[in-house]
Design brief:
alpha/beta; Rossmann fold; 4-stranded parallel β-sheet; globular
Length: 230
């Protein structure tokens, strides 16, 4: 369950309702603090810039391999579930990389980085701190606009190797619901298995109880159906 952000954000020990929902069903839950995460050194945080769709995903796979080596989990039955950047990571891990995850759940995750960047520019302006952040985080500042297509799950749907569940609030003002709609349409066009759940009144942070409950319930049921813990 990769966290959102991703630069500077990190998971720590403590109660997490979504993670607990899976753990209560018998699943081992891994919340990785990949490169770029906060809570460590400045160098560790800066190491995440330009690694969207690249080494941040590899860090997650390395963590899965380490847990498998300790006998904590079966790597052949692993799935990836996340929200925001974590949702992007879930999509990228089963399209851009041959991760071996059995399926993926993306909640409010960007999928077409070019259209997402254009939407963000329209919202915030071209020369703003927000736009500069996205350029640096994605590697666009050094690699140019072509980087965005290279790291977009929508551009790699033919390589999708697992069923995907997309969940998105229709009132999301951070990552628009059109991102999940684009991903669903691209996967369907490629003949890949995908389900899309749009939540009425759901925002990016799931501030409303009904939205949180819908996300947790639908994602847990999807995992239970496709990969029972028993």
């Amino acid at each position: 369950m990769p966290h959102g952000g991703p630069i500077g954000v990190f998971d720590r020990p403590g109660f997490d309702a979504w993670a607990q929902a899976f753990a209560s069903r018998g699943y081992a839950v891994f919340q990785p603090n990949h490169r770029g995460s906060g809570g460590r050194t400045v160098a560790f945080r800066q190491a995440g810039f330009g690694e969207w769709g690249r080494k941040m995903l590899s860090d997650m796979q390395d963590g899965v391999a380490a847990l498998a080596a300790k006998g904590i989990m079966d790597p052949k039955r692993a799935c990836i579930v996340g929200a925001s950047y974590g949702g992007y990571a879930a999509l990228a891990s089963v399209t851009l990389q041959k991760s071996g995850y059995r399926f993926a759940v993306s909640v409010s995750g960007p999928a077409d980085m070019a259209s997402f960047f254009d939407w963000d520019v329209d919202k915030h302006g071209l020369y703003t701190d927000t736009t500069r952040y996205w350029r640096a985080a994605t590697g666009m500042d050094k690699g140019g606009a072509g980087v965005l297509k290279a790291i977009s799950p929508t551009a790699h749907v033919q390589d999708a190797e697992a069923p995907i569940l997309l969940i998105h609030g229709r009132d999301d003002t951070v990552v628009p619901v059109e991102q999940s709609r684009e991903m669903a349409a691209a996967l369907r066009h490629a003949g890949k298995p995908v389900d899309l759940l749009e939540i009425n009144g759901g925002d990016h942070w799931e501030l409303h109880e009904d939205a949180r409950l819908a996300t947790i319930t639908s994602s847990v049921n999807f995992v239970l159906k496709n990969d029972p813990p028993d």
